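Q: Here's a chain of 203 amino acids. Please give me its 3D structure as tokens.
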Amino acid sequence: MAPLAGVPRTVVSLGFGVARVPVDLLAQVTGNGGNREFGPTLAFDSVEATVRGILGSVLGDPELAAQGHRQDARVQRRSAAAERDRAADARREVADDRLAQRRERDQQQREQVREQTVEQEQRLEQERRQREQQAQERERQRKEQAARDEATAHERIDEHAREARRTRVQEESEAVVAEREAAEKKAEALELAEAADEAGRRR
């Protein structure tokens, strides 16, 4: 039979043992069965430590009060550890967010660089095609001008040839006229000479 001094401790332990069942079940369901820093578990342990300390003082049970104090100290340490974990998790989340943002910015910058590179390549290709078209147009104009110059040269040559033919024909016509006039003058001279001879014989 337990001493009377231990009865309150036993009752308190049994009561909190029964009351802990839903909290332990919740921890199991949420995957925190072995997590001593689980929020509801910490809250329950803190309440239990406070009740043990108060009952120990009221009932004059130093051991029960000491249990409450020790349990409260453990809860405080676990709470501090949980707070550090939460702070670490928060820092990790912030770091992860910053890393994700930096990666997103880097990805956007890479995409922007790729877009700018594509645009520059397209612009350079367009400029190259324009230069090629301009060169082809200049070559076409040069060939057309050369053809016009050649045609003009041929026209001039043909004109010179026609002018030379006209000059030659004219010169030949003048020579024929001169020969005819010379022949006519010679014939007249012969007729005059014969008439003179005939007149001399008649005398």
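Q: Can you summarize the key feature?
A: The first helix runs from residue 7 to 29.
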